Automatic annotation (TrEMBL):
InterPro entries: 6-PGluconate_DH-like_C_sf (IPR008927), 6PGD_dom2 (IPR013328), NAD(P)-bd_dom_sf (IPR036291), Pgluconate_DH_NAD-bd_C (IPR015814). The lineage of its organism: Bacteria, Pseudomonadati, Pseudomonadota, Alphaproteobacteria, Rhodobacterales. This is Phosphogluconate dehydrogenase NAD-binding putative C-terminal domain-containing protein. Residues 186-255 form the Phosphogluconate dehydrogenase NAD-binding putative C-terminal domain. It comes from Roseivivax halodurans JCM 10272. Signal peptide: none annotated.
Amino acid sequence: MSESSRDAILIGYGEVGRAFASRIELSSNGLRCVDPVAAGQHGARLVESALPDKIVPGTLVLSAVPSAAAQAVADQLASRSDALLYIDLTSSPQELMRTCATKFEGSKVAFVDGAIMGSVDLAGADAPIILSGSEADRAATELATIGLNAKALANSQPGDACGLKLLRTLMTKGIEALAVECFAAADRMGLSAEIRSNLADINARPFPDLLDAMVRTHVVHAPRRQHEVAAALEQARALGLHATVTEAVLDAYRRTAHRSETEKPQSPTQVEQAVRWLAEGLTKVSA
């Protein structure tokens, strides 16, 4: 099959599906879109309600459905007798992806776990995709031929890509929620432009280096920093805001401060030391 006539099936016709379909159609004469919820005619594009009974061998199948539907889609494809390459882009937890991968053992369908790392809303079909599993390199090559931006994780297992994506989510979505509270407070104080300008110095060093410094010093400086967080929270409350994320941040600082004052740990010289000590506290909280 030539690259210009590559057959592809895209399952899921939400924001990701629409963006990827527009890009894939530029290099594939055989794209079929499937979504039981969005089935119907969308301009010049037909979205089918179910997978076709017969899929051409060698077809590239992408799934951009919600995580809750990942296993159901995997079940449908694992039973197929044709040789296919299936890339799951559902942003599911690592263990769910590994469960899905086991469904394809002994199957002619090759399973690859994929995770969209950037924002499709901002980058569209150029959003970077990370792939994992034994067929990740092949999948990266296949996605490149249809105009998508993909990279394989070396020596990876299914679930590693989505696991990495959700680790990133812990950071980015937490920042997003704090930004809502910060900007809401700034707006009521008439300091919206000023806080944006003031935050510019965060870019003075690479972001991971900044995070390492924060985590490493959190061990011994949480007792002092908790008072600054409490003052920031009080300011937000005085403005009539219910800053629930900042409340959770203050609780986290208080827990670390209590352990630090009780156990009196040495100041970590490496971020790995800090992470291991702090993780013990998280385990105790969840136990």
